[in-house]
Amino acid sequence: MTGASRSTASRRGRGRRWLIKLGLGGVLLVGVLLALGAGALTLLGMPTYEVPKVAFEAEPTPQRVERGKRLVSMLCRRCHYDGATRALTGRVLPETRLGRPSAPNLTREPQVGIGGWSASELAVLLRTGIHPKTGVLVPPSFMPRWPRLADEDLAAIVAFLGSEDAWVAPHAEEPPPTQYSLVARYRALWSWSPLPYPRAPIEAPAEVELEAHGAYLVDHVLQCAACHSARWGDFDALDPPRTPGYLAGGAATGDVNGVVLRAANLTPDATGLAGWTSEQLRRVLVDGFGRDGKVVRWPMTRHAGLERIEVEAIHAYLQTLDPVVNVVEESPPYRIVGRKADAGRHFYVLYGCQYCHGDKGVGVADLRGAAKRFATDEELTTFLRDPSKHDPLPIMPAYAGVIGEDEYAELCEYVRRLGG
Ligand code: HEC
Ligand code: HEC
Ligand code: HEC
Q: Which atom, in ligand 1's list, is nearest to the CA of 93?
C-alpha cells in the first residue's frame, strides 16, 4: 500500500467515526425528545371537555325497570358485572395497547358506586362519552356510546340502575382505576372526540314494523357493526351504515388468549348469512351457540335478554341488506387435549370454556373462586347446565344438552383444580 492511499484510508476512518458519533448523538437526541414527549403527555393528563347541560328524567316505572334489566344484561353486563358478587361491582378488563381498562362499580353505593349520579349525568356519559364528574372522555374503545338509543330505552337503563334489584344493591367493592397507555394518551389528544348530545327526542320504531325495529336494534342498541365490519375501531355510532364494510364482516379481534378471531359476514350472501333461518340466528344470539354447534367466541356474547320478536326483527333487517361477497377467514380451531391425558382439561377445551375463561381460569370471568362458591359437584353441574337458575340473563352459555351427563364429573374436577 502506498503512503497516499494509507492516509486516505485513515481520513476515511476518522470520517466514519464522526458519522458514528453523529448518528449516536442523533439517536440520543431523538430518545430524549421522545422521553420528554411521553413525560409531557403523562403530565398533561387526559384532555377534558365541557359537560353538556341536559335535563333528562327517568321515572322508575316497573315496566322500565324490567326492560332496563334486559338492556343492562345485553349492553353493560359483559364489562361491569362480577360473577363473584353477582352484582355490577365492576372488574378489571383484559389489557390492550391502550392500557388496562377497569370498569367501575355501578351499584347504588354513593361513594364507590354511582348512587349519587343523576339521570342527566348518566345520559351524558352514555350518549356522548364525556364523564360528567371529570369532563374526561371515556375512550370509545374502553366503553361504547349510544348516541341514538331511544329516550325510552335510555330511561329504562337509568331506572334499572336506581332500582332495588340485587345487581345494583349497594356494594363497597372498588376495582383499581383504569390505566391509560401512552398510545391512549396520544389518541385522546388527536383522534377521539365526544359525540354531540342529541337535540331532538329519539323514538324507537314500533316492534310491529319488523325491519325498521330490527335496524334500530342492530344499529343503535346492540351495535353489531362495531365488530362485524371491515375494521375494528372504525364504527360510526351516529350513523352506523356509514361504517366502512358495514356488517360485511372481516374485522379482526383478539380473544382472551390472544388468538385472532374474525367477525362473520352478516349480509345475505353465500359468504354470509344467506339461507339462515331466524331459529339459527336465535341459537347464536340468545343461546350463544354457532352453526357448527360450538360456543360462539368472545367478544361475541349471547344476549339472553333478547325476546323472540326482537330476534325476528334483527333477522328481517339483515335480510334486507345488499349481499356482499366477503369470504371471512375462519377462526382458528382450538388445539385438542386428549381425554386420556387429562379428561377434565379435555372437556374444558372441547366445550370452549377457555375461549372465555382462558387457559388459567381467569379470562372474562374468574373461576378461581368457583370451587368455594359451588360447594358440591351437583351445584356446579346445575350451574353449568343453566346458569340463569343461579342469576338471570347470564352471558355464560347454558350447556344442558351439549355436555354429556357422564362428562360433568371430570369437568367439575378440572374447574376445582383451576381454583387451587
Ligand atoms: C366494553 C366494556 C364496557 C361496557 C360494555 C360498558 N362499560 Fe361502562 N365503563 C367501562 C370502563 C372501562 C369504564 C371506565 C373508563 C375509564 O376509566 O376511562 C366505564 C365507566 C362507566 C361509568 C363511570 C363510572 C364512574 O364511577 O366513574 C359508568 C356510569 C358506566 N361505565 C356505565 C355503563 C353502562 C350503564 C353501560 C351499559 C349501558 C356500560 N357502562 C357499558 C367499560 C364498559
Ligand atoms: C363485540 C364484538 C361483536 C358484536 C358487538 C357482535 N358480534 Fe357477532 N361475532 C363477533 C365475532 C368475533 C364472531 C366470530 C366468533 C367465532 O369465531 O367464534 C361473531 C360471530 C357472529 C355470527 C356467526 C356465528 C356462526 O355460527 O358462524 C353471527 C351470526 C353474529 N356474530 C351475529 C351478530 C349480530 C346479529 C350482532 C348484533 C346483534 C353481533 N353479532 C354483534 C363479534 C361481535
Ligand atoms: C361465552 C363465554 C363463556 C364460555 C364459553 C363459558 N363461560 Fe363460564 N362464565 C362466563 C361469564 C361471563 C361468567 C360470569 C357470569 C355471567 O356473566 O354469566 C361465567 C361464570 C362461570 C362460572 C361461575 C363462576 C363463579 O365463581 O361464580 C363457572 C363455574 C363457569 N363459568 C364455568 C364454565 C365452564 C366449565 C365452561 C365450559 C363448559 C364455561 N364456563 C364456558 C362466560 C363463559
A: 12
Which residues approach ligand 2 with their CB closer than 6 A? 218, 222-224, 226-228, 253, 261, 263-264, 266, 284-285, 290-291, 296-297, 299-300, 314, 331
| Ligand 1 atom closest to Cα of residue 139 | 18
**Whole-number pLDDT of residue 2:** 43
Give the closest ligand to the alpha carbon of residue 287: 3
For residues 225 and 132, is the Cβ–Cβ distance under 8 A?
Answer: no
Which residue's CA is the closest to the ligand 3 atom numbered 27? Answer: 83
Q: How far apart are CA 394 and CA 390, in angstroms?
A: 9
- The CATH code of the domain at 210-320 is 1.10.760
For 255, the 3-state DSSP assignment is: coil
Q: Are 110 and 116 in contact (CB under 8 A)?
A: yes
CATH 1.10.760 corresponds to the domain 62-190: yes
Ligand 3 pocket, residues with Cβ under 6 angstroms: 77, 81, 83-84, 288, 295, 298, 301, 351-353, 355-357, 364-365, 367, 369-370, 373, 383-384, 387, 394-397, 399, 411, 415
Domain pair 62-190 / 210-320, same fold: yes
For residue 128, report the distance from its CA to the centre of ligand 3, in Å.
Answer: 32
What are the boundaries of each domain within the chain? 62-190, 210-320, 343-419
Residue nearest atom 14 in ligand 2 by C-alpha distance: 263
Give the fold, CATH level 3, of 343-419.
Cytochrome Bc1 Complex; Chain D, domain 2 (1.10.760)
**pLDDT reading at 9 higher than 60:** no
pLDDT tens string 346-400: 999 999 999 999 988 988 888 888 888 999 999 999 999 999 999 999 999 999 9
DSSP assignment of 93-111: PPPBTTEE-EEPP-SS-SS
Instruction: Quick: pLDDT tens for 106-115.
Output: 999 999 999 9
With contact defined as beta carbons under 8 Å apart, do 231 and 251 qualify?
yes
User: In the structure grid, which three cell numbers stand for residue 64, read together?
Assistant: 322500565
N-to-C CA span, the chain = 75
